[in-house]
Model the fold of this input.
Amino acid sequence: MAVGIFDSGLGGLTVLEAAQKRLPDVDFIYLADSEHAPYGVRTADDIYELTCAAVQRLFDAGCELVILACNTASAAALRRMQEGWIPEGKRVLGVFVPLIEALTERDWGDNSPPREVDVKHVALFATPATVASRAFQRELAFRAIGVDVEAQACGGVVDAIEDGDFILAEAMVRSHVDALMRKMPKPQAAILGCTHYPLMLDAFQEALGADVKVFSQANLVGESLADYLTRHGDKIGSGEPAYLTTGDPKQVSNRATQFLRRQITFTAA
Done:
């Protein structure tokens, strides 16, 4: 049985890479909804409908567990999906949980009252839809008190990355970091709240300064997934991944190969 990993575009490949390294014997199916990317500028209803359609495609391909490796989908659609859409026997998990576990240093299953944590000033960089949802702040408030979160909507960064224009993406990162630091001059930690952003990790770190701890999702999600699979049954397979896209497979394959610096071949979803 395969584990599905979904993203609106190619950013979720950072999560897949980390998961493959941590779980080399698990069969993964990656689905990029490249035809409709980016999600970050869409309405909540659009994001919900597109996410349900993509997840259903992964269920149909044999996945019982799907990871939404897309912060926008996790923020705008996951709770609604869990409340009334996900079929019995299937699971859909988002990417916020490992981040909040790392930031608050407490397991998700720890249901004790919110408490103070060491980090008091947190910068959140995310898509406009993720920022508007306030999902990260809501989930964080269940577990921590006294944390000031300043969010910066990073419009244009995902588009530049998807287009392969990393020079433009770096310039946009610097501009967005400057804008945030005018509101929060001394963040202690920064959350890269989009799975595309680890591709720009060095640019974020340089702009923020070496004393700011940057939380990037890929490795955190990989570790969390490994723990989940250990506790919820055997998902061992051949370790051969499959890559699906709603966009032009040749174009998406070329961009993915550029991102990961190894040959990646997508087929039509």
